[in-house]
Amino acid sequence: MSASAVFILDVKGKPLISRNYKGDVAMSKIEHFMPLLVQREEEGALAPLLSHGQVHFLWIKHSNLYCIHPTWCPWRWVWGLSAMVAAQAKRGWAEDRSCTAHLCGLGWGQGQVEMRVVARDRVEVRGLYSIYFAINGTFSLTLLPLVVATTSKNANASLVYSFLYKTIEVFCEYFKELEEESIRDNFVIVYELLDELMDFGFPQTTDSKILQEYITQQSNKLETGKSRVPPTVTNAVSWRSEGIKYKKNEVFIDVIESVNLLVNANGSVLLSEIVGTIKLKVFLSGMPELRLGLNDRVLFELTGRSKNKSVELEDVKFHQCVRLSRFDNDRTISFIPPDGDFELMSYRLSTQVKPLIWIESVIEKFSHSRVEIMVKAKGQFKKQSVANGVEISVPVPSDADSPRFKTSVGSAKYVPEKNVVIWSIKSFPGGKEYLMRAHFGLPSVEKEEVEGRPPIGVKFEIPYFTVSGIQVRYMKIIEKSGYQALPWVRYITQSGDYQLRTS
């Protein structure tokens, strides 16, 4: 991956920060981004890649800022699509013209696919998705939502986006809240970070802990003759400094699982998955080695073991400190941890999840003058567990007024700007069932248009519980000084995108 430049814009499209790494994209090209963004929003065709002439903008939005990476591609290759994509497609491609092309050198595989040009800058691939294309010295095609970015070295769009999100993460580590004001107040540090994050368009150091060793927000006294490269930059363990000391050595482990669920109006589960993370907070002296063991129910992909009564983790992603060769051999998670907070691993489970909090709703209209909504919530998890901070968002008609509520537990509040009633329950034990009734007045003249009914949303957090059954079996801490350390483990299950449709 190589990047031409990075821009940070405010909500009006005015550049706050810009760094041109290679000089192949004129700085004035960024003026075309905001008009193009507004135009695409009005057309309802907004995409993560926007193109203007020979320049393509890969962008993300964070708070009230836009972070943009423009790339350059010569149009002559686009007009020469027939020659570059398939040697056998000797005639020029026109709209609605179909053919079979042999694709090679693609990041998503090789082989023959059926393609049809549907517009000058769009190709349809049968059985897949519509794709944008841009052609460089060879060619580059990338499926949406992985958008394409091309440079003279055929940049990988997913790596560009990974770098942009990592840049945002580093800024948040420094400034806590990343917004226009924090960028203006710290523009010198932002420029220093951009120079260290990337060199001539190639990512260098993106670890915030390393960057904080030599790009600080406090004043430092200069000691002549002692200037040197921070040891973590050249150290084999770049993510941890030597000489760390604590009076009390401890490790805090958080196993956090988010439940994504979508239930239709008939009560059938349409989508369910678990997204989990294992986060550590490390306060250990020296250079310790940690070994983490999970319970026997947990399987990783391609283990070849029986799947009966087991949890198979998918999309497993480890922190760079984990020794992957050791993990590949015996599935032991062995690592020298960074100091402080970090995410050790993340995973996903595509499994049928029983709804932890089940919602039933009944909506009745009376003589077009009032509406009554009854909502019943039931905890479908273990009785010894308790869900905290439960919020049930029930949609109501946009023209409703005069709200009245009656709840068996908790409190209900009408939020007119969102057209929802939020039923809040501080503590919801497993196996319990609660009821809420809401009464609203309606205008005498009914709307001609029939409104759609948004789904009911649920938020919750259940401590000391994991829906997948994953558990930390042991945490071994090995350090040459032989000190004793205490590992603490906490389990949390919380709602992710948790929705139940209404009839």
UniProtKB/TrEMBL annotation:
<comment type="subunit">
    <text>Adaptor protein complex 1 (AP-1) is a heterotetramer composed of two large adaptins (gamma-type subunit AP1G1 and beta-type subunit AP1B1), a medium adaptin (mu-type subunit AP1M1 or AP1M2) and a small adaptin (sigma-type subunit AP1S1 or AP1S2 or AP1S3). Interacts with P2X4.</text>
</comment>
<dbReference type="Pfam" id="PF00928">
    <property type="entry name" value="Adap_comp_sub"/>
</dbReference>
<keyword id="KW-0813">Transport</keyword>
<dbReference type="InterPro" id="IPR050431">
    <property type="entry name" value="Adaptor_comp_med_subunit"/>
</dbReference>
<dbReference type="InterPro" id="IPR018240">
    <property type="entry name" value="Clathrin_mu_CS"/>
</dbReference>
<keyword id="KW-0168">Coated pit</keyword>
<dbReference type="GO" id="GO:0030665">
    <property type="term" value="C:clathrin-coated vesicle membrane"/>
</dbReference>
<keyword id="KW-0333">Golgi apparatus</keyword>
<dbReference type="InterPro" id="IPR011012">
    <property type="entry name" value="Longin-like_dom_sf"/>
</dbReference>
<keyword id="KW-0597">Phosphoprotein</keyword>
<dbReference type="InterPro" id="IPR001392">
    <property type="entry name" value="Clathrin_mu"/>
</dbReference>
<dbReference type="InterPro" id="IPR036168">
    <property type="entry name" value="AP2_Mu_C_sf"/>
</dbReference>
<feature type="domain" description="MHD">
    <location>
        <begin position="248"/>
        <end position="501"/>
    </location>
</feature>
<dbReference type="GO" id="GO:0006886">
    <property type="term" value="P:intracellular protein transport"/>
</dbReference>
<protein>
    <recommendedName>
        <fullName>AP-1 complex subunit mu-2</fullName>
    </recommendedName>
</protein>
<dbReference type="GO" id="GO:0005905">
    <property type="term" value="C:clathrin-coated pit"/>
</dbReference>
<dbReference type="GO" id="GO:0030131">
    <property type="term" value="C:clathrin adaptor complex"/>
</dbReference>
<keyword id="KW-0968">Cytoplasmic vesicle</keyword>
<comment type="function">
    <text>Subunit of clathrin-associated adaptor protein complex 1 that plays a role in protein sorting in the trans-Golgi network (TGN) and endosomes. The AP complexes mediate the recruitment of clathrin to membranes and the recognition of sorting signals within the cytosolic tails of transmembrane cargo molecules.</text>
</comment>
<dbReference type="GO" id="GO:0032588">
    <property type="term" value="C:trans-Golgi network membrane"/>
</dbReference>
<keyword id="KW-0472">Membrane</keyword>
<comment type="similarity">
    <text>Belongs to the adaptor complexes medium subunit family.</text>
</comment>
<dbReference type="InterPro" id="IPR028565">
    <property type="entry name" value="MHD"/>
</dbReference>
<keyword id="KW-0653">Protein transport</keyword>
<dbReference type="GO" id="GO:0016192">
    <property type="term" value="P:vesicle-mediated transport"/>
</dbReference>
